[in-house]
Design a protein that fits this description.
There is one protein chain. This protein has 2 domains: 205 residues, Rossmann fold (3-Layer(aba) Sandwich); 90 residues, Magnesium chelatase subunit I, C-Terminal domain (Helicase, Ruva Protein, domain 3, Orthogonal Bundle). 46% of the residues lie in helices and 15% in strands. The protein has 13 helices and 11 strands. Helix 10 packs across helix 11. The protein is globular.
Length: 312
């Protein structure tokens, strides 16, 4: 089985992390896995660490249209999806597309907007279409959302419900860069001017072709059983109220296929599941009230350490 455009995609990850997105290789790799799996990414971190730069750089080097929504408390669903206006010259209503009609959409500080608007955005993410005034409009393909979220303890935030968090294939942070790298970034200033000079190395048609190839990567019965065992173990954990959903298990299988693709294999091994399990599953856990301060990633990590790994 062929792995189309793999070398080019690896080159894209290497180029961006070497020249522009230094210190963000893991976040960029997870974003690429989400794109290849047809999923969406949630980035939770404090402002000023380069979340917007990551999304914009990715859209430019992949040759995708880019839409950005700055979420605020007064943001309306129509500010994202678009609205119909009356055209006096033609004597009819004309639909004006909102920023969500882009291949890659950045929802910046998604937890600063009201739950009603959050629901409208996340419904479009799930259905890949927008319905207004009885008419349905399809979103472009490929379509991917990168949403950023401030830490929950910050003032003026509305936490995403668990059912909506489950719609993100993966969640990750960026974190502070290593000290020496951060000194260089401070010395040389913002990289926004470099983003304008990025030339596309891939295109929409190539991304769709790659997605089809990733979906065909073999995931055997033993690996599927390993994923199920992790899902079931998460539901039995004493600190967990609700574990990984069936959707979460499907997303983990899809992400493992993308991980295998990036590693140059046309089949999934348990190590692919282990490599991508934390960002794909941890945000889906609902902890019991008395344990809400526990680290969800540590819970998943402990489960992975205990689960027997199937032999090939």
């Amino acid at each position: 089985m062929q792995l189309p455009h793999r070398d080019l995609i690896l080159q894209i990850i290497d180029n961006l992390t070497h020249d522009i997105l230094q210190g963000k290789v893991r976040a960029l790799r997870i974003a690429m896995i989400c794109l290849l799996s047809g999923g969406h990414l949630l980035i939770e971190d404090i402002p000023g660490l380069g979340k917007t730069s990551l999304a914009l750089a990715l859209s430019k080097i992949l040759g995708l249209s880019f839409g950005r929504v700055q979420c605020t408390s007064d943001l309306l669903p129509s500010d994202i999806t678009g609205l119909s206006i009356f055209d006096r010259e033609k004597n009819n209503f004309r639909f004006i597309e909102g920023p969500i009609f882009s291949n890659l959409v950045l929802l910046d500080e998604v937890n600063r907007t009201m739950p009603k608007t959050q629901s409208a955005m996340l419904e479009a993410m799930e259905e890949r279409r927008v319905t207004l005034e009885g008419k349905t409009y399809s979103l472009p393909d490929p379509f991917m959302v990168i949403a950023t979220q401030n830490p929950a303890e910050q003032i003026g935030t509305f936490a995403l419900p668990e059912s909506q968090l489950d719609r993100f294939l993966a969640a990750t942070g960026i974190g502070y860069p290593p000290p020496e790298l951060e000194r260089q970034i401070i010395q040389h200033g913002s990289i926004r001017h470099q983003l304008d000079r990025i030339e596309p190395l891939l295109g929409r048609a190539q991304i769709l072709e790659t997605r089809e190839a990733v979906a065909e990567i073999t995931l055997g019965t033993k690996v599927a059983g390993f994923i199920y065992d992790l899902v079931e173990a998460s539901r039995q954990h004493p600190l967990v109220l609700a574990g990984i959903s069936t959707r979460g298990g499907i997303n983990l299988a899809d992400a493992a296929r993308a991980e295998a693709y990036l590693k140059g294999r046309n089949y999934v091994v348990p190590e692919d599941v282990q490599a991508i399990a934390l960002p794909v599953t941890a945000h889906r856990l609902i902890l019991k009230t008395e344990y809400e301060t526990q680290n969800k990633q540590e819970i998943i990590r402990s489960l992975l350490q205990k689960l027997p790994v199937p032999m090939a």
